Amino acid sequence: MNPLDATKSGFLVCIAICMFIYTFIYLKNTLSEESNEQKFTTDTTECGFYPDELCSALFVGKSVASQIGNFCQNTYQPETLSCIQTSCNCSVVLKNLHFITRPLSEEEGNFSLAYIITIHKELQMFVKLLRAIYMPQNIYCIHVDEKSPKDYKAAVQNIVNCFENIFISSKKESVVYAGFSRLQADINCMRDLVHSKVQWNYVINLCGQDYPIKTNKDIIQYIKSKWNGKNMTPGVVQPLHMKHRTRVSYREYVHSGKSYVYPTKNIKAKPPYNLTIYFGSAYYILTKEFVEFTLTDARAKELLEWSRDTYSPDEHYWVTLNRLNDAPGATPNAAWEGNIRAVKWKDQEGTTHKGCKGHYIRDICVYGLGDLQWIIESPHLFANKFESATYPLVMDCLERRYRLKVLQQAEVPIEDHWRFQENNYFNMKLNV
Ligand SMILES: *[C@@H]1O[C@H](CO)[C@@H](O)[C@H](O)[C@H]1NC(C)=O
Ligand SMILES: *[C@@H]1O[C@H](CO)[C@@H](O)[C@H](O)[C@H]1NC(C)=O
Ligand SMILES: *[C@@H]1O[C@H](CO)[C@@H](O)[C@H](O)[C@H]1NC(C)=O
């Protein structure tokens, strides 16, 4: 083939691909005339059946979809959730926010999860997370940062009031990043949870920027099959480069809206009971018996006191206790196993992922549209981190797909208000 022919055929292939893409996008558009929910202008035609068609393309990793998606998510104002700015009565909250109101199977009805959710901002994101993980047989403790604005707290309280199995923790902390208050917030919720009437099996902690990848049923089946009766606390013996976290005493600085922890020159005493300190994830999945143990055991109590002036104690406290031979459900020989959280760490670029398509905050990826395929293909139960205000389409796609998956697995008749969309424009052939 001479060079001119090669250029020509390359050009033709290019044209063919372009035509294919345009046909794909326009075809369903012309079929969509009867949809009166969406008004198509010349600018928005290429957004197709927004957002489902774009989501389908994003979930299979079509790179052109990210570009179109960025355009479309700016064109379409993200739907603001009802009952957030204005208060509604509870029957409207349940209906309009599409809360699931009955256990979806006998297996799920028999196995209760407790959730601890620590939040401080972004009400929309909290409601999206809550309505995804909410099941009437579960129980939810919400820790709202003491620093949060009054109207934020009131709005959360308004929604929580509609549910018997959701409550705000009785004791609130002003949470400092990497500080003891972060650990204390979880413990406050645990104290409330062990006294609750609901008999739960496991507790899972989440923050306001997490979102589930697996359904309630998937989570239960994962726990039962791989961890039956055991706690999940990914982590290892404290490595050398983490020793500074517990070697000197740290202090929390809180002043006029700013807060952080800083090291002092004071060397700390050895850990109580000669405990070996581990280092791991602040995210856990724990049995009720283990939680009761951490609230009452003398070693746990002294470790907690000793941890007060350490750096990010939530990253050593749970894993250290769960490596004790005699703790209920302990896993003394475990390491990083346990698929709790999908995170794109900056320093794992090129190993566990191929870069962040959103942006990094403190070396953790805030997911953009180009991260959607990686997220849904992850084996983890939840993913972090999301900002629905920055990347609204990321949340729209995940929410809609997630709810379809949940309802597909349901073994009871589905109520209309559980559905997010009347018609489903996801390309189900692609299994998205
Ligand atoms: C809740 O509000 C809706 C709409 O404003 C109204 O139709 C309904 O009767 C109210 N329900 C109760 C129980 O007050
Ligand atoms: C659920 O619990 C009921 C009553 O304890 C029991 O009969 C049933 O077999 C359980 N179902 C499953 C799927 O575990
Ligand atoms: C403390 O633990 C270390 C290793 O875990 C062990 O070598 C040492 O003998 C222990 N000391 C005491 C006083 O128990």
Structure description:
This protein is α/β, with parallel strands linked by helices and 432 residues long. Among the domains are: 3-75, no CATH class; 90-238 and 279-339 and 408-425, Spore Coat Polysaccharide Biosynthesis Protein SpsA, Chain A (Alpha-Beta Complex). It contains 15 helices and 14 strands. It has helices spanning 3-30, 52-59, 63-75, 90-96, 106-109, 123-133, 150-160, 180-194, 216-227, 244-247, 288-296, 298-307, 317-322, 372-377, 392-409, and strands at 113-119, 139-144, 166-168, 202-207, 210-212, 235-237, 248-255, 258-267, 278-280, 285-287, 341-342, 359-361, 364-366, 382-384. The strands form five sheets. Strands 3-2-1-4-10 form a five-stranded mixed β-sheet, with helices on both faces. Strands 5-14-11 form a three-stranded mixed β-sheet. A hairpin with a 2-residue loop joins strand 7 and strand 8. Helix 2 (52-59) packs antiparallel against helix 3 (63-75) and helix 11 packs across helix 12. The protein is globular, with a radius of gyration of 24 Å. The protein starts with a helix and ends in a 23-residue tail after the last helix. The model is unreliable at 27-42 (pLDDT under 50). Keywords: Glycoprotein, Glycosyltransferase, Membrane, Signal-anchor, Transferase, Transmembrane, Transmembrane helix. Belongs to the glycosyltransferase 14 family. This is Beta-1,3-galactosyl-O-glycosyl-glycoprotein beta-1,6-N-acetylglucosaminyltransferase 7. Its main location: Golgi. One of its GO terms (molecular function) is acetylglucosaminyltransferase activity.
